[in-house]
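Ticket #4471: structure output looks truncated?

Reporter: J.K.
Steps to reproduce: submitted the chain below (484 residues) through the standard prediction queue, then opened the result file.
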Amino acid sequence: MEIIAMPFIFIYHVVHYILLSPKRILSYAYTGVLAVIDKLSRGKVTEKREKQKEIDKAVLEVEELMNASRINSKEKITIRKEPEISFRYKVKGSSGKIINGTFEGPSAEEVKSFLKNEGYEVLEVVPRKFYDVDVNIGGKFTAADLSFSLTQLSTYLKAGIALIDSVRILEKQSEKPEQRKVYQKVVYELLKGENLSMAMERQGDKFPTLLVNMIKTAELTGDLTSVLDDMAEYYTSKEETRKTMISAMTYPVIVLCIAIGVIIFILVSIVPSFVEMYQDNDAEIPAITTFVMSTSDLIVNYYYIVILVVGVIVGIFVYLYKKNRVFRKNVQILVMHIPVFSKIVIYNEVYNFTKTFASLLNHGVFITDSMEVLAKITNNEVYKELIAKTIINLNKGVNISESFKGSWAFPVAAYEMIVTGEKTGQLGLMMEKVANYYQVLHKTLVKQMQSFIEPLMIAFLALIVGTILLSIVVPMFDIYGKIQ
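Returned output as attached by the reporter:
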């Protein structure tokens, strides 16, 4: 009986011990609560880390898709029935003007045939030597170039001119040799039976990814002129925004350059003469004068080291900004938190995002395809992450708006418009309204910044120059006191 009763006796003593120890009960409860909180917080941190890893992975996947598309486009350019050779040609135009240039083709005869077909009198076509450098490099189209060219192309097509002849007209009227060469290559591809989007894609990065994708969509729907008009308006709007920014920054940059020039002139030409005078009269030198004199001595005697150090710092910064995604993201986040400048950057990015998104949606591009295009055209890592997050949510069947909910880089008004667009089924129209709204806000803010920076720069110049002059004048009172 004693053996059977022992477990019950043990349980009785344990329960009795615990019940008679409130302190122990509270201690156990407190420990249990802490354990639960710790587990939950770890779970949230782990979940947050997992989400960030998922976003980073999506960003890398988008970048890999971009690189793959570039590689594929390069492969499409190089894959031909016959290997291409670069030729140097000399032709005479219809006006009698001699034109020199380069062109790639399978043979000299085919290049001659192509040039003759384009209305030129061929004088010479020879293979390029290894030392023959093509000075007409570049040829990348700016927003202003595209705005004009697309408007012209749409006008020619509406007038009933064939596509290939319309591109020929653009080639003839192009004043930039490098762009004329790009148009020639587009005409060459069209003659070979390629469509316009493929002909443009085979020019590498000369034409924007957005434009190529929009023209692909237009070719499927058969509404090329409408898309060309919309794209012309889009690039016109972008050019206006760019000009507004340039106009706002021109005055501050000029003032800053003048300020730096004046400061260097004073430190190099004026300060050294006063240094000698102070040394000859044993004047008492205050700290501010010592600092200015040391700065002057550094610039005069070690200017090459200063230039080298500044050059190295700028070079490292530019290299890291271009090559290192984490560094670029941190710099962009820093800029996006500077007062005034933060709103200018955010409004500009929101405008570009919504305007491009609206153009894609309004022309029947699928949302997932639109996001891939948007990821290719933005250089801001913060918005790349938002787009990558959107792609993840779309794959999970979640609404687009969820990706932008609560994001510090995406204004609440823009988010609410996305939500409204999703609910009403008019997302493209809502994005267009958001783009117009933030374009106006951006222009207004840039003008305000311009009005704010002008007096600020003048005050900065006066402060620096005044400090230098004060440091020169102060020791003179000591010399004057000794003379008295």
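Triage note (M.O.): checked the attachment and the full token line is present. Residues 1-23, 68-81 have pLDDT under 50 and may be disordered.
Status: closed, working as intended.
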